[in-house]
Amino acid sequence: MCGRFAITSPPEAVRAHFRYAEQPNFPPRYNIAPTQPIPIVAARRDGRHFQLARWGFLPGFVKDPKDFPLIINARAETLTQKPSFRAALRRRRCLAPADAWYEWRANGKGPKTPFLLRRRDGGLMAFAGLWETFADASGGEIDTACIITTSANGATVAIHDRMPALIAPEDFDAWLNPDETIAPPLDLLRPAPEDDIEFFAISPRVNRVANDGPEIQAPV
Asked: Are strands 162-164 and 141-151 parallel, antiparallel or unpaired?
């Protein structure tokens, strides 16, 4: 599962990495939580675009969001089996820029220990995702998104049995391709190589969404 993550790189660095047309200016966010707006990168015929979406995917067939469970993650192994994701998987795939994500390791009956996970080289990551525009009964619209997860690699499984599916820069075009006549490249949804990811325990301050500063990422 991926239930919290961070995007703290400067906006210009994110734009250079993902090569989208817009020039958004956004502050560093160290503790992004479900239902909050998250940056995503999607593709149209004229190239890649930056947009904000609520972290909590709503399929087009939903009538009332109050009656539908919050979908923040989608399992790569069952994407093609779930009606909720069928349309988005064909033509509304996206990337969620991130610098790190957080997981909690169980410790028997004691409190769980939070960990920060990131690229060993400190570089930006691209979580595979899906997005959908939800329209309510009054005509209002909101873009929503979820992050796709896959099984953990041989190192990160010590913390959690799932991890975000990370898309490499050379595969951005293949993953984002909006042409629904081309089958989704599901082979890209695989665990990251063990040597690519590092992790370390951090303070329980990350448990509170209100704590959103660099201090929550300090090793303990």
From this structure: antiparallel
Q: Where are the alpha helices (H) located in 60-212, listed in sequence order?
A: 86-91, 172-176
Cβ atoms 50, 43 nearer than 8 A: no
E-assigned strands of 83-137? 93-98, 100-107, 110-119, 125-135
| Distance of alpha carbon 128 from alpha carbon 153, whole angstroms | 16
* Sequence-ordered alpha helix ranges (H) in 110-196: 172-176
Rounded CA gap, 176 and 118, in Å?
23
**0.90 exceeded by the pTM?**
yes
Ordered strands of the 4-7 beta sheet: 29-32, 4-7, 100-107, 110-119, 197-201
| Angstrom distance (rounded) from CA 174 to CA 186 | 10
Domain count, the chain: 1
Q: Which domain holds residue 192?
A: 4-217
User: Facing residues of 43 across strands?
Assistant: 48
Query: Is the pLDDT score of 136 beyond 90?
Result: no
On whether the CB atoms of residues 118 and 164 are closer than 8 A, the answer is no
Average confidence (pLDDT) over 12-19: 98
What CATH number should be reported for the domain holding residue 187?
Answer: 3.90.1680.10
Three-point CA angle 165, 55, 169, nearest 5° = 35
Residues known to be catalytic? 2, 103
Both tokens assigned to 186: 């599901």
